[in-house]
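User: Can you predict the 3D structure for this chain?
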Amino acid sequence: MAQKGLGRGLSALFEDENSTDGGPSAQQLVAVTDLSPSPFQPRQIFDPERLDELAASIRSQGVIQPLLVRQASEGVKTRYEIIAGERRWRAAQRARLHEVPVIIRPLSNVDAAEIAVLENIQREDLSLFEEAEGYRRLITQFSYTQAEVAERVGKSRAHIANTLRLLAMPDQLRRMVEEGQLSAGHARALLSVENPIPLARQAVAERWSVRELEQAVRRLLTPSERREGAPAVVPGQGEKDPDLREAEEQATSQLGLSVQIQGSGTKGQVRVSYASLEQLELILAKLSGSP
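Assistant: Here is the predicted structure, written as structure tokens:
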């Protein structure tokens, strides 16, 4: 089977950005009106305050990082589609710039979709649901497996699977997560409950931890439902503490690498896995506080 996607890091797509030969890899200025967002953009919400902050930076320093674009697809009215850099494009318009620097690449739909997910995860956190939608698009539209998605975005397969599970939750529960009332760990514990909203409200009102909520879910389920894969297991009976599992997922998401935590909430070990020299350098840079 042919290799899917890029097979290289995002930085490789900008490696010729200082070229001056006028070729397709050369950085050039393009009118903001000649650009339009990619249909593969997973981000649906752009925080106005953060856009204003970026616009202020652009007014004083300009657009430092060029946008990555490709020739527009058939039926698109503009000349180019933005593959990476839509926030910069939106902020540049707020800063009243007429042109922005771009790198033009001949990218396929698969590449465009993959880059859109990668760029947003690496540059600024997507919401959990935008991240999940990005993964689902790679799987449903381009036939990726969960393992292939995990490899391409540098996260564990468990993180991909758990994130995708969030798409099955009811809208009201989703809003509670988006508003910060519940964590993703709380939401996943509720997915096996037929009517999760009353229990979710109780968890919010009484400020339950993920462990406390999973124990409450377990008490509600029948023995057969528990055997079918209910996520709630009392700590100390062969399963890792759910709060530690959630911490692992958060660390994996923030670092972009597989993180395992062994021990308890007060003592243990943290293991970070890497699969390339580039990933090792990323770990060392974060440990040293380098940007």
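DSSP finds 14 helices and seven strands in the chain. The CA atoms of residues 251 and 259 lie 6 Å apart.
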